[in-house]
Design goal:
Length: about 400
């Protein structure tokens, strides 16, 4: 997060104030523990994080494992101070901060709850991250998350079954699931998409940050080459930005796809919906996922969807719309087969729209609030200083 000289805290791509107010359904205030860097002014497109009921406790800022190790002692001190006067601690995991904080809480015999939003086994899988200690970090992070789930007072997972199987809750842990991707009524269309005429190029759309190779856009570009070879006319619009964008643009040029591919960069929500409404087929060729919000939003716009069989994606779409991760030939086959059958495209789109309604705000918010209330009841009270009001959870991310 970013802090300006007036003390305000901002984010460009992370959760803003409205996200953190969800904890106020059970607590009086929420303190967000986050790495924070100082900036002279908020950058373009930044959103405010702190506000009514929400404060940010700035932690030493670092990027990457080396700087994490250099700041480890200062992080531990800051985390200890941050949670000393709060009633409950809720951790969004996996997180290096949680790996520092949980041992402290267990030594103090203080309960904590988790929101399990990722899988380190997938994040550090081969082909996703390239680093000499990748395997060591992968094993260590997965083991730490399993232990955290085992000893938590409560654990809420973003998937219905996938993360629960890998990181099961303990025998005394209250467990539930809900997605952070709860969609407002404006995210949904009334009717599923009508398949395009076969005589026009089909517009594919993919969405995702380009900081790592997680989203598999390179695989999608190679699949497009195969579709071209089969005479299937497609174009691609990718929404999202990051340091790997130039590399992907070069890959597109190398395979003569420049005229068929548009990288829009990052867009505000309304513009993303506009791009979804112009597209014919959403494709998410991810190498790793949990429960992808972008896919749920595409389904809510009535689009047919093709995805990979990783993470929570198979919980959203049927096996007929899945391809193995990292396999351009299989992805091209899945896309080509769906485009060749307009009636199946229509049926898949209708099925997707119906499934997306399980992620309405009205469907998920009550379950989430019930979990927070149960966590508050289970909290072991901390010693509260006179300057801080009780019933304040700390959410580390």
């Amino acid at each position: 997060m970013l802090r300006t000289p007036d003390g305000a805290v901002w984010t460009v791509s992370g959760p803003a104030h409205a996200f953190w107010t969800r904890y106020l359904s059970a607590f009086d205030r929420v303190r967000v523990l986050a790495r924070t860097s100082e900036v002279p002014q908020p950058p373009s497109g930044a959103a405010r994080v702190d506000g009514t009921g929400v404060e940010v406790w700035p932690l030493p800022y670092y990027v990457g494992p080396v700087r994490y190790l250099l700041h480890r002692r200062a992080l531990r001190r800051s985390l200890s101070d941050a949670v000393r006067d709060v009633e409950g601690v809720l951790l969004r995991v996996p997180s290096p901060l949680a790996n520092l904080l949980v041992p402290m809480l267990r030594r103090q015999r203080r309960g904590y709850a988790l929101e399990v939003v990722g899988d380190p086994q997938d994040v550090f899988a081969a082909g996703v991250v390239r680093h000499p200690v990748r395997l060591l970090v992968r094993r260590w992070a997965a083991r730490a998350l399993r232990e955290q789930c085992r000893w938590a007072v409560g654990a809420a997972y973003v998937t219905e079954t996938y993360l629960q199987r890998r990181y099961p809750p303990g025998p005394n842990t209250t467990a539930t699931w809900y997605s952070s991707a709860d969609l407002p009524a404006t995210a949904f269309v009334d009717q599923a998409r009508t398949p395009p005429p076969r005589t026009v190029p089909v517009t594919l759309i993919s969405i995702g940050a380009l900081e790592q190779m997680y989203k598999g856009v390179d695989v999608l570009l190679l699949a497009m080459c195969r579709l071209n070879g089969r005479g299937v006319a497609v174009r691609l619009v990718h929404v999202g930005d990051g340091r790997l964008r130039p590399r992907l643009e070069r890959l597109a040029a190398q395979h003569n796809l420049t005229d068929q591919v548009t990288f829009t960069g990052a867009l505000p929500a309304a513009a993303v919906f506009d791009q979804l409404d112009r597209a014919d087929l959403f494709v998410l060729p991810s190498r790793t996922e949990e429960l992808p919000r972008a896919m749920i939003e595409a389904m809510a716009r009535g689009l047919p969807v093709i995805g990979t069989s990783v993470g929570g994606i198979p919980e959203l779409i049927g096996p007929d719309c899945l391809a193995p991760a990292g396999d351009p030939a299989a992805l091209a086959e899945a896309i080509g087969a769906l485009l060749a059958d307009p009636q199946r495209m229509a049926d898949v789109a209708s099925r997707n729209l119906a499934r997306s309604r399980d992620y309405r705000v009205e469907a998920l918010a009550p379950r989430r609030a019930a979990f927070y209330r149960a966590f508050r009841v289970a909290c072991r009270p901390a010693t509260v200083s006179p300057a801080v009001t009780p019933r304040e959870p700390a959410a580390a991310r």
